[in-house]
Amino acid sequence: MKDRLQALARDARIRQVIAAIPYGCVASYGQVAALAGLPRGARLVGRVLRHASPALPWHRVVAAGGRIAVARSSPVHDEQVARLHAEGVACRDGKVDVARHGWRPGLDELLWGPLAFAEGED
DNA sequence: AGCCTGACGCTGG
DNA sequence: GCCAGCGCCAGGC
Q1: Cα–Cα distance, A94 to A84 (Å, whole number)
Q2: A72 touches strand C (CB under 7 A)
Q3: How far is residue A31's CA from residue A75's CA, in Å, rounded to a whole number?
Q4: Contact between the CB of A38 and strand C at under 7 Å
Q5: DSSP state of A106
Q6: What 3-state DSSP class applies to A47?
Q7: What is the mean pLDDT of chain A?
Q8: What's the rounded Cα separation, in Å, for the pair A57 and A63?
Q9: How far apart are CA A56 and CA A58, in angstroms?
Q10: What is the pLDDT of residue A38?
Q11: Which value, in Å, is the radius of gyration of the alpha carbons in chain A?
Q12: Strand B positions closer than 7 A to protein CB
């Protein structure tokens, strides 16, 4: 039963990290996982996103290199591109310019409160 | 217990 | 720059 609780805590951390991605920025699955304390948990982030509430800024999570993770043919893909575009993040050929919109934690967190969300739990 | 699957990531051709 | 392979962590059956 404890495993179950740990799993929930894990997912919660992941959701919190995603929620912490600033408007107009994007973070990779691996980055989110790492910030959640799960070094090789990129796939877990994907699992969470699949079940997550639409209230989460899921569109700010992209694959490595700024690539939109879902298939270009998928309606979800278009949805994500639209949402990103809405906040000023341009998508070129299913990709986001990470150099320009990539989330670089440390700035905000350093100023507003260092990853407080990624600690408390456990 | 074992095998398949996945909104991933990295290396190499 | 696209595709194939292989590694990775969990969950569903």
Answers
A1: 11
A2: no
A3: 25
A4: yes
A5: T
A6: helix
A7: 90
A8: 15
A9: 5
A10: 97
A11: 14
A12: 6-10
Q: Phi and psi for A20 in degrees, rounded to 5?
A: -85, -5
Contact partners, residue A52, CB within 8 Å, separation at least 6: A15, A18, A58
Q: What is the pLDDT of residues A24-65, one digit of tens each?
A: 999 999 999 999 999 999 999 999 999 999 999 999 999 999
**How far is the CA of A98 from the CAs of A32, A55, A58, A64, in angstroms?**
14, 23, 16, 9
The three-state secondary structure class of A1 is coil
DSSP A60: G
Place of tokens 């990539």: A102
Round to a whole number and report the distance in Å from the CA of A48 to the C1' of C13: 20
Q: Which residue has the higher pLDDT, A49 or A120?
A: A49
In whole angstroms, what is the distance from residue A62 CA to residue A60 CA? 6
Q: What is the pLDDT averaged over residues A99-115?
A: 74
The amino acid that residue A83 corresponds to is R
Q: What is the pLDDT of residue A3?
A: 84
